[in-house]
């Protein structure tokens, strides 16, 4: 019969149409920190640049500097461990990981690095305060 293929096709179209909505509902738009909901991807600038350096367990490796706060953004350039940078801002990725906007002091190039790969000398300070 022709009804069965038509019904199967209709169900496939409905399922396809609903799939993006299901995927969108699972994307985080805010991250909860303390008593606040922080918008994902919104950069919070530091009062003044913080001198820092790139860190990696393996000194022969490089750290990706990306065009936005998250691994879904493209790589602009790479930095070696111990390279100096200025931290300009911080933001959350869609996975609620902290990313720092860094600037290369000599070239002025800016991009985003996961906070695990940046060390700010001095006493520990909390983010988002």
Salient structural properties:
129 residues, alpha+beta, 5-stranded antiparallel β-sheet, two-stranded antiparallel sheet, 9 strands, 18% helix
Helix segment tally:
1
Question: pLDDT below 50 for ≥5 consecutive residues: which ranges?
Answer: 3-26
Percentage beta strand: 35-45%
Helix percentage range: 10-25%
List the secondary-structure elements in sequence, H or E.
HEEEEEEEEE
Determine the structural class based on helices, strands and strand pairing: alpha+beta
Mean pLDDT: 78
The 3D shape can be described as: globular
Q: Main sheet? A: 5 strands, antiparallel
Order of strands side by side in the largest beta sheet? 8-7-6-3-9
Please outline the helices and strands.
Layout: H1 3-25, E1 30-33, E2 36-39, E3 44-54, E4 63-66, E5 75-79, E6 84-92, E7 98-103, E8 110-114, E9 118-119
Antiparallel strand pairs: 1-2, 3-6, 3-9, 4-5, 6-7, 7-8
Textual characterization of the structure:
The chain has 129 residues and is an alpha+beta fold. It is 18% helix and 39% strand. The protein is built from one helix and nine strands; from the N terminus they run H-E-E-E-E-E-E-E-E-E. The protein has one helix at 3-25; strands spanning 30-33, 36-39, 44-54, 63-66, 75-79, 84-92, 98-103, 110-114, 118-119. Strands 8-7-6-3-9 form a five-stranded antiparallel β-sheet, with no helix packed on it. The chain starts with a helix and ends in a 10-residue tail after the last strand. The model is unreliable at 3-26 (pLDDT under 50).
At a glance:
This protein has one helix at 3-25, and strands at residues 30-33, 36-39, 44-54, 63-66, 75-79, 84-92, 98-103, 110-114, 118-119. With 129 residues, the protein is α+β, with helices and mostly antiparallel strands.
């Amino acid at each position: 019969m022709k009804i069965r293929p038509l019904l199967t096709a209709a169900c496939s179209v409905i399922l396809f149409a609903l799939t993006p909505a299901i995927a969108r509902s699972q994307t985080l738009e805010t991250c909860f920190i303390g008593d606040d909901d922080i918008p994902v991807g919104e950069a919070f600038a530091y009062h003044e640049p913080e001198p820092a350096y790139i860190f990696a367990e393996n000194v022969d490796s490089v750290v990706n500097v990306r065009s936005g706060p998250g691994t879904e953004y493209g790589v602009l350039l790479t930095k070696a461990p111990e390279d100096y940078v200025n931290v300009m801002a911080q933001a959350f990725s869609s996975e609620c990981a902290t990313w720092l906007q860094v600037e290369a002091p000599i070239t002025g190039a800016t991009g985003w690095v996961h906070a695990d790969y940046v060390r700010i000398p001095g006493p520990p300070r909390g983010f988002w305060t």
